[in-house]
Model the fold of this input.
Amino acid sequence: MGKRVALVLAGCGVFDGSEIHEASAALVHLSRGGAEVKIFAPNIEQRDVVNHLKGSPSEEKRNVLVESARLARGNIQDLAELKADEFDAVIFPGGFGVAKNLCSWAVDGKNCTVNEHVNSTLQAFHSAKKPIGLCCISPVLAAKVFPGCEVTVGQDKNVDGRFPDAETASAIAELGCKHICKNVNESHVDKANKIVTTCAFMCKAPLHEIFDGIGTMVQEVLRLA
Done:
């Protein structure tokens, strides 16, 4: 029987929601791994809405759950309804929506607050010793909620201009966590906490390398489950 995995989204679109390629890659790898997946998102208003064509803010209002339903093809539930005892693992794709909607990292950095349902979900899986998969900017959620854990967001220096957000690694270290440098096609496993992370679009890399890195994260999550 396949592992039961919850996938948590943060909207739809890299600049104000979940990164679509990361969410899709996670779903493809989960499907290949024989997992049974259910998708969730918090029923809250987005922090902001970005015109992805122009890269500029829009005045409109959007709901995270409603927008995430685009990625889920309508088959989605309110994150408040997620019960950890019904699943073997949970995975969070990245995208600015994680740093804007699931927590306030985009505004407050290491002093951010985490959405109550996101926090309770992470705590529930961690307490049950069930694996947590995170990619791109999502590892900051673990860094904030689980001091002392190990995560990767890629490299801690902007190597060859491929890691423009390398300072995130320093902020993670300031939270009392250990940042592990990894390439885009790799993931890191914090065995003690069962937290698996990969940098995805935190690295400027070809899409297939990002896809492969997310694949290693999903494989490790399923193995731990």
About this structure: Residues 11 and 17 are 4 Å apart (CA to CA). The mean pLDDT is 97. The helical segments are 20-32, 64-71, 96-102, 105-108, 116-127, 139-145, 167-174, 207-224.
